[in-house]
Amino acid sequence: MVINLGLQHSLVNQFISEMRDAVVQTDSQRFRRNMERLGEIFAYEISKKLDYEEKEITTSLGTAVVPMLKSYPVLGTILRAGLPLHQGLLNYFDRSENAFVSAYREHRKDDEFAVQIEYTSCPDLSGKVLILCDPMLATGHSMFSSYKELLNHGKPSAIHLVAVLASIQGIEYLKRFMPKQGVTIWVGAIDDELTAQGYIVPGLGDAGDLAFGKKA
Length: 216
Description:
Helix content is 31%, strand content 33%. By secondary structure, it is an alpha/beta fold. It has a single domain (2-47, 73-212), classed as 3-Layer(aba) Sandwich (Rossmann fold), CATH 3.40.50. The strands form three sheets. Strands 1, 4, 5, 6, 7, 8, 9 and 10 form an eight-stranded mixed β-sheet that branches. A two-stranded antiparallel sheet has the order 2-3. Strands 11-12 form a two-stranded antiparallel sheet. Strand 2 and strand 3 form a beta hairpin. Helix 2 (28-47) packs across helix 3 (83-92). The protein is globular and about 65 Å long. It starts with a strand and ends with a helix.
């Protein structure tokens, strides 16, 4: 299932428009905050799909029965670009365990590249809900490679993949290779074009550089 929040009239589009805007992008603090806000919105929307149980809460005047999460999801992100988006998710799922994957593109000749995984930090995922985020879902290779790496720590009961922007090609790649059941892809917008170098057009540029400064 693919859920595109950008198809709705909401603040999602306002935040994404600022992230795309080349003038607004010069303010890295604003860029990070907008990405964090989107993480919060994604968290709220995903929370509607999770399992709840009724619990009795004692107040100063009596008791109230409230639906509460049965368990918090594990929040995973791909370093470094995903950190602000991950923080937004964590602001709402504030009791969650966390997973981190260090992945990068190793560029080769003729615009070819391979995704390399250098490091992971992850709790046991067995039977838990996993939310894995990366701001840009371009080819889909980084997201899928990170997912496969995290499987070394157990098989989740359900998976939510979160991206601010996605390409049609990236969506189709994940639909082809991810499990057919128990996976939901959440995006803020889907762009039509993907360059030979694997960049989304019109996209917004390099999310990691815009959030944290250019790499040497």
